[in-house]
Amino acid sequence: MPRIYSLLIIVTIALCFFSGKNRFVQEPWKAPVWTDSLYNPYNIEPLTLPQAQEVYNLHCIRCHGGQGQGYPLEHTAQEVPDFKQDWVRQQSDGALYWKIREGRGIMPGYKLKLSDEQLWQLVEYIRDLSKPFDQQKNPFKNLEE
Fold first, then answer.
1. What predicted TM-score, i.e. pTM, was given to this entire model?
2. Which CATH number fits domain 26-135: 1.10.760.10, 2.60.40.1230, 3.40.50.150, 3.20.20.150?
């Protein structure tokens, strides 16, 4: 009887690895189409980016890096994007807002931890980090983070 269970486990594992679709490859993360119609309802003020930097440093920097370059995570196949990549920069503000709010996989959603204004500030901060360092507008930017 134990041989049957062992065989069953081996067949199940083989099916996972050799099926037509690799279950260990991350699917692209696409926000719902309706998020493209979302716009930041808050004014961009002189403290928007510094305040967002504080929130980013508390919640985001350990995976996304000080300049949004993304760190490879050895314990997961989930990609941590570099904010300067075209596919990140081409997303709407609403899509970025939704992704930060909802989260996916190892990235937690922040809808219960951050205010709506903080979520939109993070979108502005990500937009700033997506620019070359010398073009970023945050007065407190720092390469060392």
1. 0.77
2. 1.10.760.10
Q: How far apart are CA 87 and CA 91, in angstroms?
A: 7
pLDDT digit string (tens) for the chain, length 145 residues: 566 665 556 655 555 555 444 444 557 889 999 999 999 999 999 999 999 999 999 999 988 888 888 876 666 667 788 899 999 999 999 999 999 999 998 889 999 999 999 999 999 999 999 999 899 998 887 765 4
